[in-house]
Amino acid sequence: MSATTDPDATAPDTTSATPSDDVVLQEVELGTQWPTIDPFLFCAHHLDQYPEGDGELGPAATFEGREMGQDFAGVDGWNMYHGSHVPGFPQHPHRGFETVTVVREGLIDHSDSLGATARFGRGDTQWLTAGAGVVHSEMFPLVDAEGPNPLHLFQIWLNLPAADKLVDPYFTMLWAEETPTVEATDAQGRKAVVTVIAGALGDVQPLAPPPNSWAAHPEADLAIWHLELEPGAEWELPAAAGPDTIRTLYVFEGAGVEVGGHHLDNEVGAVVRCDAPTTLVAGPERVELLILQGRPIGEPVARYGPFVMNTEDEIRQAFSDYQRTGFGGWPWTDDAPDHGADRGRFALHADGRMEER
Fold first, then answer.
1. What is the dihedral of CA 263, 266, 271, 274, to 10 degrees?
2. For the chain, what is the largest distance between any 2 Cα atoms, rounded to a whole number of angstroms?
3. What phi-psi label fits residue 232: left (phi over 0), alpha (psi between -120 and 50 degrees) or beta?
4. Are residues 289 and 205 in the same domain?
5. Can you give the pLDDT at residue 20?
6. Residues 258 and 330 in one domain
7. Is residue 345 part of a domain?
Protein backbone atom coordinates (compact mmCIF):
# COMPACT_ATOMS: atom_id res chain seq x y z
CA MET A 1 0.00 0.00 0.00
CA SER A 2 1.21 3.51 -0.59
CA ALA A 3 0.34 6.86 0.87
CA THR A 4 1.70 10.30 1.48
CA THR A 5 2.15 12.08 4.76
CA ASP A 6 2.97 15.57 5.89
CA PRO A 7 6.72 16.07 5.35
CA ASP A 8 6.71 18.88 7.89
CA ALA A 9 5.21 16.81 10.73
CA THR A 10 7.47 17.14 13.75
CA ALA A 11 7.39 16.13 17.37
CA PRO A 12 5.98 18.57 19.88
CA ASP A 13 8.46 20.27 22.15
CA THR A 14 8.44 18.33 25.42
CA THR A 15 11.73 19.59 26.81
CA SER A 16 10.09 22.08 29.17
CA ALA A 17 7.39 19.72 30.43
CA THR A 18 7.01 19.32 34.18
CA PRO A 19 4.83 16.90 36.15
CA SER A 20 2.17 19.62 36.51
CA ASP A 21 1.89 20.18 32.74
CA ASP A 22 -1.00 18.79 30.71
CA VAL A 23 -0.76 15.12 29.81
CA VAL A 24 -2.04 15.74 26.27
CA LEU A 25 0.51 17.76 24.32
CA GLN A 26 -1.05 17.86 20.86
CA GLU A 27 -4.30 16.71 19.23
CA VAL A 28 -5.33 16.06 15.64
CA GLU A 29 -8.50 14.78 13.99
CA LEU A 30 -8.11 11.48 12.19
CA GLY A 31 -8.98 10.49 8.65
CA THR A 32 -8.04 7.39 6.68
CA GLN A 33 -4.31 8.20 6.91
CA TRP A 34 -3.24 9.10 10.41
CA PRO A 35 -0.39 11.55 11.01
CA THR A 36 2.56 10.13 12.91
CA ILE A 37 5.91 11.24 14.31
CA ASP A 38 9.43 9.86 13.76
CA PRO A 39 10.19 6.92 13.69
CA PHE A 40 6.72 6.28 12.23
CA LEU A 41 5.98 7.63 8.75
CA PHE A 42 2.18 7.23 8.72
CA CYS A 43 -0.59 4.86 9.69
CA ALA A 44 -3.38 3.93 7.28
CA HIS A 45 -6.64 2.82 8.87
CA HIS A 46 -8.73 0.67 6.55
CA LEU A 47 -12.29 -0.21 7.56
CA ASP A 48 -14.29 -1.65 4.65
CA GLN A 49 -17.73 -3.18 5.00
CA TYR A 50 -17.47 -5.49 2.01
CA PRO A 51 -20.63 -7.38 0.95
CA GLU A 52 -20.83 -11.08 0.30
CA GLY A 53 -18.36 -12.46 -2.22
CA ASP A 54 -19.23 -13.42 -5.78
CA GLY A 55 -17.58 -16.86 -5.59
CA GLU A 56 -14.43 -15.51 -7.26
CA LEU A 57 -13.23 -13.46 -4.24
CA GLY A 58 -14.66 -10.19 -5.51
CA PRO A 59 -17.73 -8.36 -4.22
CA ALA A 60 -21.17 -9.49 -5.34
CA ALA A 61 -22.01 -5.93 -6.30
CA THR A 62 -21.87 -3.59 -9.24
CA PHE A 63 -18.77 -1.46 -9.84
CA GLU A 64 -20.89 1.27 -11.37
CA GLY A 65 -19.99 4.73 -10.02
CA ARG A 66 -16.53 3.66 -8.92
CA GLU A 67 -13.26 5.00 -10.30
CA MET A 68 -11.79 1.58 -10.93
CA GLY A 69 -8.04 1.47 -10.44
CA GLN A 70 -8.24 4.40 -8.02
CA ASP A 71 -11.30 3.57 -5.94
CA PHE A 72 -10.85 5.32 -2.58
CA ALA A 73 -14.20 7.13 -2.27
CA GLY A 74 -15.82 4.65 0.11
CA VAL A 75 -18.98 4.17 -1.98
CA ASP A 76 -21.40 1.94 -0.02
CA GLY A 77 -18.84 1.74 2.80
CA TRP A 78 -16.05 -0.03 0.93
CA ASN A 79 -13.29 0.51 -1.62
CA MET A 80 -11.72 -1.50 -4.43
CA TYR A 81 -8.46 0.48 -4.04
CA HIS A 82 -6.31 -0.51 -7.04
CA GLY A 83 -7.98 -3.89 -7.53
CA SER A 84 -9.88 -4.71 -10.71
CA HIS A 85 -11.93 -7.63 -9.34
CA VAL A 86 -10.55 -8.57 -5.93
CA PRO A 87 -10.10 -5.46 -3.75
CA GLY A 88 -6.58 -4.49 -2.76
CA PHE A 89 -3.20 -3.37 -3.96
CA PRO A 90 -1.65 -5.28 -6.90
CA GLN A 91 2.14 -5.42 -7.24
CA HIS A 92 4.01 -2.26 -6.20
CA PRO A 93 7.57 -1.57 -4.95
CA HIS A 94 9.00 -0.35 -1.64
CA ARG A 95 12.47 0.62 -0.43
CA GLY A 96 13.99 2.05 2.73
CA PHE A 97 11.35 1.41 5.42
CA GLU A 98 9.04 -1.21 6.93
CA THR A 99 5.33 -1.98 6.74
CA VAL A 100 3.58 -3.36 9.81
CA THR A 101 0.14 -4.63 8.77
CA VAL A 102 -2.16 -5.38 11.70
CA VAL A 103 -5.37 -7.11 10.61
CA ARG A 104 -8.30 -7.06 13.03
CA GLU A 105 -10.89 -8.59 10.65
CA GLY A 106 -10.69 -10.07 7.17
CA LEU A 107 -7.85 -11.61 5.18
CA ILE A 108 -4.89 -10.44 3.09
CA ASP A 109 -3.23 -12.43 0.32
CA HIS A 110 0.44 -11.42 0.08
CA SER A 111 2.87 -12.21 -2.76
CA ASP A 112 6.28 -10.68 -3.40
CA SER A 113 9.29 -10.47 -5.70
CA LEU A 114 11.29 -12.82 -3.46
CA GLY A 115 8.88 -15.64 -4.26
CA ALA A 116 7.30 -15.49 -0.81
CA THR A 117 3.54 -15.60 -0.37
CA ALA A 118 1.03 -15.73 2.47
CA ARG A 119 -2.57 -15.52 3.57
CA PHE A 120 -2.99 -13.83 6.94
CA GLY A 121 -5.55 -11.90 8.94
CA ARG A 122 -8.10 -12.31 11.75
CA GLY A 123 -5.72 -10.93 14.35
CA ASP A 124 -2.40 -11.58 12.60
CA THR A 125 0.32 -9.04 11.87
CA GLN A 126 2.79 -9.10 8.99
CA TRP A 127 6.00 -7.12 9.55
CA LEU A 128 7.86 -6.50 6.29
CA THR A 129 11.30 -4.92 6.07
CA ALA A 130 11.48 -3.57 2.52
CA GLY A 131 15.14 -2.64 2.92
CA ALA A 132 17.01 -2.52 -0.39
CA GLY A 133 13.82 -3.16 -2.32
CA VAL A 134 10.88 -5.50 -2.65
CA VAL A 135 7.78 -5.66 -4.84
CA HIS A 136 4.65 -7.06 -3.23
CA SER A 137 0.90 -7.27 -3.67
CA GLU A 138 -1.75 -7.13 -0.94
CA MET A 139 -5.16 -8.36 -2.00
CA PHE A 140 -8.29 -8.63 0.16
CA PRO A 141 -10.13 -11.85 -0.84
CA LEU A 142 -13.84 -11.92 -0.07
CA VAL A 143 -14.01 -15.60 0.82
CA ASP A 144 -17.55 -15.65 2.22
CA ALA A 145 -20.10 -15.94 -0.58
CA GLU A 146 -23.00 -16.24 1.88
CA GLY A 147 -22.51 -13.15 4.05
CA PRO A 148 -20.55 -9.92 4.50
CA ASN A 149 -16.75 -9.77 4.42
CA PRO A 150 -15.70 -6.91 6.73
CA LEU A 151 -12.04 -5.83 6.56
CA HIS A 152 -10.40 -3.89 9.37
CA LEU A 153 -6.67 -3.24 9.40
CA PHE A 154 -3.92 -0.79 10.18
CA GLN A 155 -0.85 -0.45 8.03
CA ILE A 156 1.94 1.36 9.82
CA TRP A 157 4.98 2.63 7.96
CA LEU A 158 8.05 2.50 10.20
CA ASN A 159 11.25 4.18 9.09
CA LEU A 160 14.67 2.55 8.95
CA PRO A 161 17.87 4.34 9.98
CA ALA A 162 20.35 5.13 7.23
CA ALA A 163 22.59 2.22 8.25
CA ASP A 164 19.74 -0.23 7.55
CA LYS A 165 18.06 1.35 4.52
CA LEU A 166 19.55 -1.20 2.12
CA VAL A 167 19.40 -4.40 4.16
CA ASP A 168 17.97 -7.51 2.53
CA PRO A 169 14.14 -7.61 2.43
CA TYR A 170 12.56 -9.83 5.06
CA PHE A 171 9.15 -10.49 6.57
CA THR A 172 8.02 -11.90 9.88
CA MET A 173 4.56 -13.22 10.70
CA LEU A 174 3.17 -12.43 14.14
CA TRP A 175 0.32 -14.93 14.27
CA ALA A 176 -2.74 -14.10 16.35
CA GLU A 177 -2.47 -17.30 18.39
CA GLU A 178 1.06 -16.37 19.49
CA THR A 179 0.70 -12.62 19.90
CA PRO A 180 0.61 -11.88 23.65
CA THR A 181 -2.16 -9.96 25.36
CA VAL A 182 -2.37 -8.31 28.76
CA GLU A 183 -5.68 -8.31 30.64
CA ALA A 184 -6.39 -6.11 33.64
CA THR A 185 -9.53 -5.59 35.74
CA ASP A 186 -10.16 -2.34 37.58
CA ALA A 187 -11.66 -1.91 41.03
CA GLN A 188 -15.18 -2.01 39.56
CA GLY A 189 -14.55 -5.24 37.68
CA ARG A 190 -14.29 -3.59 34.26
CA LYS A 191 -11.73 -5.02 31.88
CA ALA A 192 -8.88 -3.67 29.76
CA VAL A 193 -7.19 -5.86 27.13
CA VAL A 194 -3.92 -4.89 25.42
CA THR A 195 -2.59 -6.73 22.37
CA VAL A 196 1.19 -6.45 22.55
CA ILE A 197 2.35 -6.28 18.93
CA ALA A 198 5.69 -4.61 19.68
CA GLY A 199 7.36 -3.34 22.82
CA ALA A 200 7.30 -5.04 26.20
CA LEU A 201 4.38 -4.17 28.49
CA GLY A 202 5.45 -4.83 32.05
CA ASP A 203 6.78 -8.37 32.15
CA VAL A 204 5.01 -9.36 28.91
CA GLN A 205 7.42 -9.61 25.97
CA PRO A 206 6.25 -9.27 22.36
CA LEU A 207 7.14 -11.57 19.51
CA ALA A 208 10.43 -10.61 17.87
CA PRO A 209 10.36 -8.04 15.04
CA PRO A 210 12.48 -8.55 11.91
CA PRO A 211 16.21 -8.53 12.76
CA ASN A 212 17.03 -5.21 11.06
CA SER A 213 13.99 -3.30 12.28
CA TRP A 214 14.37 -0.10 14.31
CA ALA A 215 12.20 -1.98 16.81
CA ALA A 216 15.03 -4.52 17.23
CA HIS A 217 17.24 -1.80 18.75
CA PRO A 218 16.68 -1.77 22.54
CA GLU A 219 17.28 1.97 22.70
CA ALA A 220 14.40 2.57 20.24
CA ASP A 221 11.81 2.03 23.03
CA LEU A 222 9.34 1.19 20.26
CA ALA A 223 5.84 -0.06 21.02
CA ILE A 224 2.70 -0.88 19.06
CA TRP A 225 -0.20 -1.73 21.36
CA HIS A 226 -3.89 -2.19 20.63
CA LEU A 227 -6.04 -1.34 23.66
CA GLU A 228 -9.68 -2.28 24.30
CA LEU A 229 -11.52 -0.83 27.30
CA GLU A 230 -14.96 -1.89 28.48
CA PRO A 231 -17.42 0.96 29.12
CA GLY A 232 -16.14 3.01 32.05
CA ALA A 233 -13.03 0.85 32.47
CA GLU A 234 -9.93 2.41 34.02
CA TRP A 235 -6.38 1.35 33.11
CA GLU A 236 -2.95 2.78 33.88
CA LEU A 237 -0.66 3.24 30.89
CA PRO A 238 2.90 2.82 32.20
CA ALA A 239 5.68 5.32 31.67
CA ALA A 240 7.98 4.86 28.70
CA ALA A 241 11.55 3.72 29.26
CA GLY A 242 13.40 6.61 27.66
CA PRO A 243 13.28 10.39 28.11
CA ASP A 244 13.27 10.95 24.33
CA THR A 245 10.41 8.58 23.61
CA ILE A 246 7.31 10.02 21.91
CA ARG A 247 3.93 8.37 22.42
CA THR A 248 0.76 8.88 20.37
CA LEU A 249 -2.72 7.57 21.17
CA TYR A 250 -5.33 7.12 18.43
CA VAL A 251 -8.97 6.72 19.49
CA PHE A 252 -10.87 4.97 16.69
CA GLU A 253 -13.87 3.30 18.33
CA GLY A 254 -16.30 4.31 21.05
CA ALA A 255 -17.44 7.55 22.69
CA GLY A 256 -14.02 8.81 23.70
CA VAL A 257 -11.62 8.35 26.61
CA GLU A 258 -10.20 10.39 29.47
CA VAL A 259 -6.40 10.59 29.36
CA GLY A 260 -5.02 11.93 32.62
CA GLY A 261 -8.28 13.83 33.08
CA HIS A 262 -8.25 15.21 29.51
CA HIS A 263 -11.11 14.06 27.24
CA LEU A 264 -10.28 12.73 23.79
CA ASP A 265 -13.15 12.19 21.35
CA ASN A 266 -13.43 9.30 18.96
CA GLU A 267 -11.44 9.76 15.71
CA VAL A 268 -8.83 11.88 17.50
CA GLY A 269 -5.11 11.30 17.82
CA ALA A 270 -3.03 12.82 20.61
CA VAL A 271 0.64 13.05 21.50
CA VAL A 272 0.81 12.45 25.23
CA ARG A 273 3.42 12.77 27.94
CA CYS A 274 5.01 9.41 28.67
CA ASP A 275 7.56 10.12 31.41
CA ALA A 276 5.06 9.03 34.09
CA PRO A 277 2.14 6.58 34.26
CA THR A 278 -1.12 7.90 32.83
CA THR A 279 -4.63 6.83 33.78
CA LEU A 280 -7.05 6.12 30.92
CA VAL A 281 -10.80 5.94 31.58
CA ALA A 282 -13.28 4.81 28.93
CA GLY A 283 -16.47 6.71 28.26
CA PRO A 284 -19.94 5.14 28.31
CA GLU A 285 -19.14 2.86 25.36
CA ARG A 286 -16.46 0.28 24.68
CA VAL A 287 -13.34 2.10 23.49
CA GLU A 288 -10.51 0.99 21.20
CA LEU A 289 -7.17 2.76 20.83
CA LEU A 290 -3.96 2.19 18.91
CA ILE A 291 -0.83 3.28 20.76
CA LEU A 292 2.40 4.04 18.89
CA GLN A 293 5.56 5.04 20.67
CA GLY A 294 9.23 5.19 19.87
CA ARG A 295 12.44 7.10 20.17
CA PRO A 296 12.95 9.17 17.00
CA ILE A 297 15.62 8.07 14.56
CA GLY A 298 16.42 11.75 14.08
CA GLU A 299 17.73 11.57 10.51
CA PRO A 300 16.67 13.47 7.37
CA VAL A 301 13.73 11.91 5.54
CA ALA A 302 13.31 12.06 1.77
CA ARG A 303 10.28 10.25 0.42
CA TYR A 304 8.45 9.90 -2.82
CA GLY A 305 5.59 7.44 -3.25
CA PRO A 306 6.82 3.97 -2.30
CA PHE A 307 10.39 4.95 -1.41
CA VAL A 308 11.70 6.48 1.82
CA MET A 309 15.36 7.44 1.95
CA ASN A 310 17.55 10.14 3.52
CA THR A 311 18.31 12.28 0.45
CA GLU A 312 16.73 13.20 -2.88
CA ASP A 313 19.68 11.59 -4.67
CA GLU A 314 18.87 8.32 -2.91
CA ILE A 315 15.26 8.59 -4.05
CA ARG A 316 16.41 9.03 -7.65
CA GLN A 317 18.69 6.02 -7.21
CA ALA A 318 15.78 3.97 -5.89
CA PHE A 319 13.74 4.72 -9.02
CA SER A 320 16.73 3.93 -11.23
CA ASP A 321 17.40 0.64 -9.45
CA TYR A 322 13.76 -0.37 -9.63
CA GLN A 323 13.55 0.40 -13.35
CA ARG A 324 16.77 -1.55 -13.95
CA THR A 325 16.22 -4.61 -11.72
CA GLY A 326 12.55 -4.67 -10.78
CA PHE A 327 13.87 -5.48 -7.30
CA GLY A 328 14.25 -9.08 -8.42
CA GLY A 329 11.37 -9.18 -10.88
CA TRP A 330 7.83 -10.42 -10.46
CA PRO A 331 7.70 -14.25 -10.37
CA TRP A 332 3.89 -14.52 -10.47
CA THR A 333 1.68 -14.85 -13.55
CA ASP A 334 -0.79 -12.30 -12.13
CA ASP A 335 -0.17 -8.79 -10.82
CA ALA A 336 -2.65 -9.53 -8.02
CA PRO A 337 -2.36 -13.19 -6.99
CA ASP A 338 -4.87 -14.72 -4.61
CA HIS A 339 -5.11 -18.06 -2.81
CA GLY A 340 -8.65 -19.11 -3.63
CA ALA A 341 -11.69 -19.41 -1.43
CA ASP A 342 -10.69 -22.38 0.71
CA ARG A 343 -7.02 -21.84 1.60
CA GLY A 344 -6.31 -21.28 5.29
CA ARG A 345 -3.83 -18.86 6.82
CA PHE A 346 -0.20 -19.64 5.97
CA ALA A 347 3.13 -18.10 5.05
CA LEU A 348 5.69 -19.43 2.58
CA HIS A 349 8.93 -17.53 3.15
CA ALA A 350 11.60 -16.76 0.56
CA ASP A 351 13.91 -19.41 2.07
CA GLY A 352 11.25 -22.09 1.57
CA ARG A 353 10.11 -22.18 5.20
CA MET A 354 6.38 -22.86 5.48
CA GLU A 355 4.10 -21.84 8.34
CA GLU A 356 0.53 -23.15 8.47
CA ARG A 357 -2.27 -21.88 10.69
1. 60
2. 62
3. left
4. yes
5. 36
6. no
7. no
Co-location of 287 and 319 in the same domain: no
pLDDT tens digits for 6-60?
Answer: 333 444 443 333 333 589 999 999 988 999 999 999 999 999 999 999 999 999 9
Residue 78 to residues 49, 63, 119, 260, 324, Cα–Cα distance (Å)? 5, 11, 21, 36, 36
State the Cα–Cα distance between residues 289 and 229, nearest whole angstrom: 9
Per-residue CA distances from 30 to 214, 248, 266, 267, 323 (Å) = 25, 12, 9, 5, 35
Is residue 349 included in any domain, yes or no?
Answer: no
**Tens digits of residue pLDDT in 75-97:** 999 999 999 999 999 999 999 99
Number of domains into which the chain is organized: 2
Three-state SS for 200? coil
Range of the domain at 267: 22-29+180-299
Q: Is 319 helix (H, G, I), strand (E, B) or coil?
A: helix
Same domain flag for 148 and 258: no
Q: Note the pLDDT tens digit of each residue in 192-251.
A: 999 999 999 999 999 999 999 999 999 999 999 999 999 999 999 999 998 899 999 999
Collapsing DSSP to helix, strand or coil, 320 comes out as helix
**Burial, 183: exposed, middle or buried (Cβ in 10 Å; 0-12, 13-18, 19+)?**
exposed
In angstroms, the Cα distances linking 306 to 104, 130, 309, 311, 355 are: 24, 10, 10, 14, 28
CATH code: domain of residue 187? 2.60.120.10
As a whole number, the mean pLDDT across the chain is: 93
Residue 348 lies in a domain: no
One-character DSSP codes across 80-131:
-BT-SSS-EEEEEEEBSEEEEEEEEESEEEEEETTS-EEEEETT-EEEEE-T
Model confidence, pTM? 0.93
Lowest mean pLDDT among 11-20, 147-156, 263-272: 11-20
